[in-house]
Amino acid sequence: MEPDMTRRSYALWLVPSGDLRRRLARTIRRLSRAYATPSFPPHVTLASRIAGPRQEVLAKAAQLAREIPPLTLRLTGIEGRNEYFRCLVARVGPNKALRQAHRLAKRIFGLRAQRPFMPHLSLVYGDLAPSTKRKIIASLGKRFDVEFEVRHMDVVAIQGPPRQWRRVQSIHLTPPGRGGH
In this predicted model, what pLDDT tens digit does every residue of 34-85 receive, in sequence order? Predict the structure, then answer.
């Protein structure tokens, strides 16, 4: 059962681009069809459960993007978890710049930590049996050693179930020396 996401809420997503984005999107769609789970764009959530008027959220997101340089992220191992939105994930390897960006997002948006930051790229949302998750991991391989650069951040309205989520705006991250730190 999908969690109730009826409150006006936003998330900040770091999105891979190019061929990797297309490959990840195909994998997510294939798994979604095979296991009757929601499909969604590939992303690494920087922050979520952001409340407020749309224009205020967009202004703060633009401020944040001016302070974050493009990031290089590495997907590592795949694991199953007992959480709807983290049912099957590719973990993001240790990354100091990503953790700093997350802390900055929390400060700018006044977010309290709901749980520890666990950078990941979800492959499946849902409530699948542990045996099903093991089967999927076996088909994909436990290692997911992929590195990619993130050059923009999407602001996503996350009202309702995942099929109703909509990108509100995509904002370029500022390269060093061009208005950021």
Answer: 999 999 999 999 999 999 999 999 999 999 999 999 999 999 989 999 999 9
Residue 90 CA to residue 158 CA, distance in Å, equals: 21
Tokens of 91: 């973990």
How far CA 49 is from CA of 10, 22, 105, 173, in Å, comes to 6, 27, 12, 21
The answer to whether the pTM exceeds 0.85 is: yes
Radius of gyration (C-alpha) of the chain in whole angstroms: 16
Residue type, 101: A
Which helix (H) or strand (E) element contains residue 10?
Answer: strand 10-14
**CATH number 3.30.565.10 is the correct assignment for the domain at 10-172:** no
